[in-house]
Amino acid sequence: MAFVIDAALVLVFVLIGRRSHGEAATVAGILTTYWPFFIGLVAGWFVTWAWRRPLALLWPGVPVWLMTVALGMLIRTSVGQGVEPAFIAVAFVVLGVFLVGWRIAAIPFARRRALRRA
Predict the structure, then answer these.
(1) What is the pLDDT of residues 5-55, one digit of tens each?
(2) Counting runs of H as helices and runs of E as strands, what totals does the chain give?
């Protein structure tokens, strides 16, 4: 479930960005912007084995966020998509808030659930 939340939040980031720049909300346009970040997200999950502790902040939360941004930008650059410093900064902040922020918000719920199980 945590991966689905991460992937959905990356999609929300893409949709907000495309809308704020007046870009068409076509499936092809959205996928063109989304797939580099999605690949970065998948790589982050794979490298950190995030499925073992998906709600953990320091490992995998922060590395997943950083890899999503870094690999997303590297892939965009390698396929000729735009990568401006302002875009990198916005992606860094927004995806950080999204990918780490929801984990922070989930901690109290996860703790309550663990106490009920005990």
Answers:
(1) 999 999 999 999 999 988 888 999 999 999 999 999 999 999 999 999 999
(2) 4, 0
Neighbours of 23 (CB within 10 A): 14
Instruction: For 63-94, give one letter per residue: b (16+ CB within 10 A) or e.
Output: ebbbbbbbbbbebbeeeeeebeeeeeeebbeb
> Minimal CA–CA distance to 69: which of 36, 102, 101, 30?
36
Distance, CA of 31 to CA of 113 (rounded, Å): 36
Contact between 25 and 49 under an 8 Å Cβ cutoff? The reply is no
Taking the C-alpha atoms of residue 18 and residue 76, their distance in angstroms, rounded to an integer, is 15
Percent of the chain with pLDDT strictly greater than 90 = 86
